[in-house]
Amino acid sequence: MEGMGDAMRTRSKDEDLKDRTPVLVIGGGPVGLVVSGLLAQRGIRNCVVERRREAQCAPAAHVLRKRPMEILDRLGVGEAVRRARSPLPLDFITWVTTLDGKEIGRLDLRPVDPETGVRGPEPWTNCAQNVLEPILLRHVETLPEARILRGAEWLGLDQGDDCVTARIRLEEGTESFVEASWVVAADGAGSPTRRRLGIPMEGPGPLARFAMIHFEADLTPWIRDRPGPILWIMNPESPGTLIVHDPGASHVFMMPMQGTRDGDGERAEREAIPARLAAALGVPVTPRILSIDEWSPHVQVAERYREGRVFLVGDAAHRFPPTGGLGLNTGIQEAADLVDRLAGVVSGTAPETLLDGYESTCRPVARANAHESFENMKRLGEITGVIGAPPDLKSLEERLSSFSREEAQRLARAIEAQRSHFLSDGLVPGDSASPSR
Ligand SMILES: Cc1cc2nc3c(=O)[nH]c(=O)nc-3n(C[C@H](O)[C@H](O)[C@H](O)COP(=O)(O)OP(=O)(O)OC[C@H]3O[C@@H](n4cnc5c(N)ncnc54)[C@H](O)[C@@H]3O)c2cc1C
Fold it and tell me: What domain range is 31 assigned to?
C-alpha cells in the first residue's frame, strides 16, 4: 500500500528480521519508549525502530504533570525521574529586562492550602527531556519483551489484511523487513509515517520561527535572587525565554528569529546568535553553545489518528506551541490509552473494536490542548501590551522606573493573567485504565 517499490519485491524474506512482532513502534523518542515499555510490561512483544543512535541531547520538554507522572510510576521509572530532576522546582516564573537587570514581575506558582493559607510544594516534576529519555531507554532495554533497534530508519510499509510489513534500514546500512500485527507511529512532529499515509494536519502553522540554544554557563550568582527555572527576558535588543535546567551548567535560551530560512539573511542571523545570547543574559559570562535547533510553533492535530493497522501517537498526531508544556504530557497520556487497547486486542481479551475508541478519546483532548497552548502563547502578548515597544534596554528600564500607579497595576494584572498558562494540566483522556469502547 505504501509503495515500498522494487526493494521489497526483490528481497528474500530470509534476509529479514525473523519473527513477526505483535507491535512495531516507529520512533524511540519519549512517547515511543513509553508505548514500548507499557506494552512489554503487559507481556506484549514489540520492536522499536529509532533512527538516532544516541538519546536526545537538547533539553526540550521539561514540565511533567501529575497524570503523566502517574503513568511513568506505573512503568516503574517515576522514582528515577524524580531523583534525576532539575534542582530548581517549578515554583516561580519571572519576567526581567536581563538576567542582571530589573525585575518586571513574578508569579508564585506554589499552591496555597485553602485552610491554612500556607504554600505547598509545586505539583509538577521538572525533568528535562535529555535526562528523561536515557532513563526511559535504560528501563525499556531491560524488558525482555521490548526490542530496540537504534540507528535504524523506517523507510516504508505495506498493509495486508492481518499484518503490516515495514521496510527499515539497519544501523549497518542493510535493509530489512519487520512484520507486525499493529504499528504505532511515534516518529515526532515531522512524522514520515503520517506523511506517507497521507494524513493531513488540521490547524494553522508554522506561526513563527525560533532558535533553541542549549548552552553551558555558570549562572548561579544571578539565579540566586531570581527564583524559578523560567525567566522571560524582555530586553528589546534581545528578547527570549531562558530555561535554567541546572544553574551551574545547563540552560536553554529560546530566541525569536526574523529572517527567511535561506540566503544571507539567515546566515547573518545565525552568526548573530552568540551576541544576542550575551545581550539577553547581560552578565559577565562566556556561554559555551552546545547546540542550536530551529523550530516553529504549530497549532495542528492530525485529521485521523489511525489508518488501518497504523496508529499515530505523540507529536506525530499533534503539534502544539510549547506554551503550557502540554506536548509531551499529552503524548504520554495517549501512549497509555493506546497501550491499554492494544494489549487487550493482542492478548485476545478484547475485540478489535476497542481500538476504535483511541481516536474518539484522544483526538478531542489533543484539539483542546492545542487550543489552550495557542491561547497561552497569545496571552503572553498582554505583558508587551502594557510595556509598549521601547527601542532599547535603557529606554525599557527608564519606562519601567517611571510607571504610574495605574500602569503598574495593569502590568501586575497582565502577569497574573499568565497563571493558567502554568497551572493548567490540560485536558486528560478519560480514565485510561478503562477506555471507552
Ligand atoms: C523548545 C521546546 C520546549 C518544549 N517544552 C515542553 C514541555 O515543557 N512539556 C511538554 O509536555 N512538551 C514540551 N515540548 C514538546 C515535546 O518536546 C514534544 O511533545 C515531545 O518531544 C514529543 O515526543 P515524541 O516522542 O512524540 O516525538 P519526538 O521526541 O520528536 O520523537 C520522535 C522520534 O522518532 C524518530 N524518528 C523520526 N522518523 C523516524 C524514522 N523514519 N525512522 C526511525 N525513527 C524515526 C526521531 O529520531 C525521534 O527520536 C517542547 C518542545 C520544544 C521544541
Answer: 5-81+127-204+300-374
